[in-house]
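Can't paste images in this forum, so I'm doing it all in text. The chain is below; anyone willing to post the predicted structure tokens underneath?
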Amino acid sequence: MNTIKKVFLAALIAAGAVLLLYFSFPGKSGEMYRVEVFEAGNGWGYRILKEDKTIIEQPCMPGIKGNIPFPDEVSARDIGELVLLKIKKNEDPSITPEELKKKLSIPDHVLIQNPVFSDYQNPRSLE
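Text version of the structure:
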């Protein structure tokens, strides 16, 4: 076999090995997950995707009674990012009412009575 054929064959084998390694390992574990927000009723929700497959879809605020959507896009994204962080740490991804209150500055009367959010103004929306 002449030298040109040997070089070509070696390059072809190397390229194949690189492609095999590239597609065998998805990269960092966090890179395959992402958060998307979406409109849900009169508010917002979030979904967690692993690659392109939905693994969690949350159209309302978790941890409180009722089907109340997040009051704004930023709130939905913030809680979605918190859930994603828990997934990356191999923790239970559940959100407690306390975490929701802390992250979104939700007053106690909203958590206890769950009124419609028309009378609740998220401090973030004033920024």
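Residues 31-114 form one domain. The CA atoms of residues 100 and 106 lie 7 Å apart.
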